[in-house]
């Protein structure tokens, strides 16, 4: 049983990895199963939210209650988010967005030969940062996957992106796994969500963010 702590709230979630084309058959992507983001979409719906799920590359089935928008590149994800964001109360950015896209993309399949091939990479927009720095942003939740110095790097990220809440996890313990453990960072400090199935962790995250959201928006 999940208390309906997000009843009537509109929640936008990005999940999965973006994919940046190199040519007709190749591309660059990140390691991300999409499981954590999809679990959060389900948990938010259980909590009474109206959920829009912007999904990158993943083979996962749509969670119950989500309106799903499939995207490929970071630019596609940004466009989908921008089209929805004005009406949202809460934005949870779980997607593993590629940091770069390929400038010298080829329409046709590149034929291999003995030459060195150089990819030119240009930085992608930071979707979460662009939403969080809007004049009247929705309540923004970020994720930080780090392989070392977890708390230190995550704190810096929360500050840089101006997020009321950031969920930090170790790459080694989260990627592709059925379980996860998170450290939530907010103005009050650190809050550990111990290792559990991703849906359980997602439910606890939803409970925590709903409390912060309500404190920010007194009835
Ligand atoms: O900077 P880093 O990629 O580690 O930040 C992680 C957080 O920022 C995640 O919430 C991720 O979804 C979001 N992000 C984004 N757009 C990017 C890069 C990251 O929305 N281009």
TrEMBL record:
Residues 11-219 are annotated as: Phosphopantothenate--cysteine ligase. Keywords: Decarboxylase, Flavoprotein, FMN, Ligase, Lyase, Magnesium, Metal-binding, Multifunctional enzyme. Pathway: Cofactor biosynthesis; coenzyme A biosynthesis; CoA from (R)-pantothenate: step 2/5; Cofactor biosynthesis; coenzyme A biosynthesis; CoA from (R)-pantothenate: step 3/5. Its cofactor is Mg(2+); FMN. Its EC number is 4.1.1.36, 6.3.2.5. It catalyses: N-[(R)-4-phosphopantothenoyl]-L-cysteine + H(+) = (R)-4'-phosphopantetheine + CO2; (R)-4'-phosphopantothenate + L-cysteine + CTP = N-[(R)-4-phosphopantothenoyl]-L-cysteine + CMP + diphosphate + H(+). CTP binds at residues 99, 109, 125-128, 143, 157, 161. GO terms for cellular component: phosphopantothenoylcysteine decarboxylase complex. Residues 6-211 form the DNA/pantothenate metabolism flavoprotein C-terminal domain. Binds 1 FMN per subunit. The keyword Metal-binding applies. One of its GO terms (biological process) is coenzyme A biosynthetic process. GO terms for molecular function: FMN binding; metal ion binding; phosphopantothenate--cysteine ligase activity; phosphopantothenoylcysteine decarboxylase activity. In the C-terminal section; belongs to the PPC synthetase family. In the N-terminal section; belongs to the HFCD (homo-oligomeric flavin containing Cys decarboxylase) superfamily. Catalyzes two sequential steps in the biosynthesis of coenzyme A. In the first step cysteine is conjugated to 4'-phosphopantothenate to form 4-phosphopantothenoylcysteine. In the second step the latter compound is decarboxylated to form 4'-phosphopantotheine. Catalyzes two steps in the biosynthesis of coenzyme A. In the first step cysteine is conjugated to 4'-phosphopantothenate to form 4-phosphopantothenoylcysteine, in the latter compound is decarboxylated to form 4'-phosphopantotheine. This is Coenzyme A biosynthesis bifunctional protein CoaBC. It comes from Amantichitinum ursilacus. The gene is coaBC. The chain holds residues 178 to 396 of 405 of the full protein.
């Amino acid at each position: 049983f999940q208390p309906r702590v997000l009843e009537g709230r509109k929640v936008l979630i990005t999940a999965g990895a973006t994919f940046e084309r190199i040519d007709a058959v190749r591309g660059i992507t990140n390691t991300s199963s999409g499981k954590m983001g999809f679990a959060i979409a389900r948990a938010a719906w259980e909590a009474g939210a109206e959920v829009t799920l912007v999904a990158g590359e993943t083979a996962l089935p749509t969670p119950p209650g989500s309106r799903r928008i499939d995207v490929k590149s970071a630019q596609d994800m940004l466009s989908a988010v921008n089209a929805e964001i004005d009406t949202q109360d809460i934005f949870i950015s779980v997607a593993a967005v590629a940091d770069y896209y390929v400038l010298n993309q080829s329409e046709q399949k590149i034929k291999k030969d003995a030459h060195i091939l150089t990819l030119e990479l240009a930085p992608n927009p930071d979707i979460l940062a662009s939403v969080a720095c809007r004049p009247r942003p929705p309540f923004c939740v970020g994720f930080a996957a780090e392989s070392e110095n977890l708390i230190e790097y995550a704190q810096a990220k929360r500050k840089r992106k101006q997020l009321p809440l950031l969920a930090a996890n170790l790459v080694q313990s989260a990627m592709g796994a059925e379980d996860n453990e998170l450290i939530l960072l907010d103005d009050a400090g650190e809050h550990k969500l111990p290792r559990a199935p991703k849906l359980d962790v997602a439910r606890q995250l939803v409970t925590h963010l709903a409390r912060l959201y309500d404190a920010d928006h007194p009835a």
